[in-house]
Amino acid sequence: MIQSSQCELCAGDGGEVVWRHPDFRVVLVDEAGYPGFCRVIWNGHVKEMTDLAPVDRTLLANAVWAVEAALREVMRPEKVNLATLGNMTPHVHWHVIPRYLDDLHFPSPVWAPARREADPSSLDARHARLPQLREAIRKQLSVAGFSAA
Q1: Which of 7, 17, 34, 113 is most deeply buried (CB count within 10 A of its CB)?
Q2: Which residues on adjacent β-strands are paired with residue 24?
Q3: DSSP secondary structure, the chain, as one string
Q4: What confidence tens digit (pLDDT) does each residue in 10-33 have?
Q5: Are 146 and 66 in contact (CB under 8 A)?
Q6: Do residues 94 and 84 lie in contact, with contact meaning Cβ atoms separated by under 8 Å?
Q7: Widest CA span of the chain, in angstroms?
Q8: What is the pTM of this model?
C-alpha cells in the first residue's frame, strides 16, 4: 500500500492548478494529445470513494460535473470520458477527458494503443482554447457554489 509520503498526488499538484478548494483541486494535465484533459483530485490521501463521507462524495462529484460542463462548453468534444481508476496512483481523483473522433485513440480508451497520428492543426486549435477553458472551469465551479481556497 502506498503511504501518503510516497503518493505523487500528495507530493505534488498533479498538473496545472486551475481551482483550489479546501477539499479538492482541479488541474489541467499536460497530455500533449489531449488538450483540456483535467483531473479533479481530493486533497487528502484517500484510496477509495467510499472512504469519503457521503457529503464529501457528493461535493467531489459535483465538482466533476462542473468541470465536465466547462469542457463541453469550451472544447466542444464528441464525448467526455470520466474515469476514476487509481490502480497506479491509489488516491481519489477523477479524470475528465475530452474525446474527439480524430483523437489518437478514439473510440478506444486514452490508455489503449494509439489508432492514428495526431492532427497538428486540430491539436493547435484545441490548445488555443485552454485559456477559455480555465475561465469556464472557474465560472462553472463558482456557479455551482464552490469557493476557492
Answers
A1: 34
A2: 42
A3: ---GGG-HHHHS-SSEEEEE-SSEEEEE---TT-TT-EEEEESS--SSGGGS-HHHHHHHHHHHHHHHHHHHHHH--SEEEEE---SSS-S-EEEEEEE-TTSSSTTS-TTSPP-S---HHHHHHHHHTHHHHHHHHHHHHHHTT----
A4: 999 999 999 999 999 999 999 989
A5: yes
A6: yes
A7: 44
A8: 0.94
What letter represents residue 96's amino acid? V
**Category of 88 on φ-ψ map: left (φ > 0), alpha (ψ -120 to 50) or beta:** alpha
9: which 3 cell numbers?
A: 498526488
- Per the prediction, the chain carries an average pLDDT of 94
C-alpha cell belonging to residue 23: 477539499
* Separation of alpha carbons 22 and 16, rounded Å: 17
Residue identified by cell 484545441 is 126
Which residue is associated with the grid cell 462542473? 66
d(C-alpha 111, C-alpha 130), whole Å: 22
Model confidence pLDDT, tens digit, residues 38-64? 999 999 999 999 999 999 999 999 999
Amino acid, res. 127: H
Q: Cell numbers for 140, please give them.
A: 462553472
